[in-house]
Design a protein that fits this description.
This protein is α+β, with helices and mostly antiparallel strands and 300 residues long. It folds into two domains: 11-200, DNA ligase/mRNA capping enzyme (D-amino Acid Aminotransferase, Chain A, domain 1, 2-Layer Sandwich); 206-297, no CATH class. Helices cover 33% and strands 18% of the residues. It contains eight helices and eleven strands. Helix 5 crosses helix 8 (283-297). The longest helix has 24 residues, at 253-276. Residues 206-213 have low confidence and may be disordered.
Length: 300
């Protein structure tokens, strides 16, 4: 029997969490979709669905995801055949990127399968074979590389950049996707965790909302927030919150701000360190500045 199991956090390639991911083994590269994280599993004989952080119900269904899973019998058929498996994927609903082809929306694209009996994620080749014949949408491989045969890091960097800038999976003609996900199924980081990495195109990276050649009369905390917290960033996190909670009411502002700040630190700690340089950062002040930055753009 399975139960709700939160999917791993995909780390930026610059994070120490993925140091050594290129050391050896086979590297699998996949297109990254900009939707809502979802999971499907069998619990007490019933098909269940989850969002990024919670088990879903008819009342809290993550923008129709729960209903979609319950309305498509292939999920029950697969899970009855393989009750120890958890399906992970992207429920493609409008988020930051709106340039997917019309027929791509409101479908579940599987990108990982976890086997609770073996306590591990299955490699791409294994789960593709397992899922074959059920009619699922599966995010395809866009590149594969034997890391043991790479002659130089520059060769690998050029190859990955080419994949990143030519990711047109499900995109309208002339559009390119947000980024790519890098998986080395043999990699375990220095903390003993299996971790994946991501690369995001420059167009979707953090941008400063105004030019700034120095601190001027700003504190380092204000300068960091100015560089990172943009309207697009706030909107992306707002949509993630709505996926989990249905709506964002004024009464939930405190909860949203707390979640936003935690994710802000997790996602941007190395960028924060880079921007700060040798300047000491007061994280209590940084938190206040993040909250003020969010309120600047958030419309309730």
């Amino acid at each position: 029997m399975s139960e709700f199991r939160k999917y791993m956090h995909i780390e930026h390639l610059t994070s120490e969490e993925v140091e050594g991911i290129f050391s050896e083994g086979m590297l699998h590269v996949f297109p990254k979709l900009d939707g809502s994280n979802g999971s499907v599993w069998l619990e007490d004989g019933k098909v269940c669905a989850g969002s990024r952080n919670n088990k879903l119900t008819e009342q809290w269904d993550n923008a129709g995801f729960y209903k979609y899973i319950q309305s498509n019998p292939e999920f029950e058929r697969f899970l009855k055949d393989h009750p120890t498996m958890i399906l992970y994927g992207e429920w493609l609903i409008p988020h930051t990127i709106k340039d997917y082809v019309p027929e791509a929306w409101n479908k579940f694209y599987i990108f990982d399968v976890y086997d609770t009996s073996q306590h591990k994620y299955l490699p791409y080749e294994d789960y593709c074979q397992l899922l074959n014949g059920y009619g699922f949408c599966i995010i395809p491989l866009c590149g594969m590389c034997d890391l043991n045969n790479i002659c130089a890091q520059g060769e690998l960097d050029d190859w990955l950049t080419g994949l990143l800038n030519n990711n047109t999976y499900l995109m309208k003609e002339g559009s390119i996707g947000e980024g790519i996900v890098l998986k080395n199924y043999d990699f375990v980081n220095k903390y003993g965790r299996m971790t994946y990495a991501k690369m995001v195109r420059q167009a979707f990276k953090v941008k400063s909302r105004s030019p700034n050649k120095g601190l001027g009369d700003k504190t380092i905390e204000q300068y960091i927030v100015e560089k990172i917290v943009t309207q697009e960033y706030v909107e992306h996190e707002r949509l993630k919150f709505i996926d989990e909670n249905g709506k964002l009411y004024a009464e939930q502002l405190g909860k949203f701000l707390g979640i936003f700040y935690a994710e802000f630190i997790r996602e941007n700690i190395f960028e924060i360190m880079r921007i700060a340089g040798k300047s000491p950062v007061r994280f209590d002040k940084l938190k206040k500045e993040v909250y003020d930055g969010v309120k600047l753009y958030l419309v309730l």
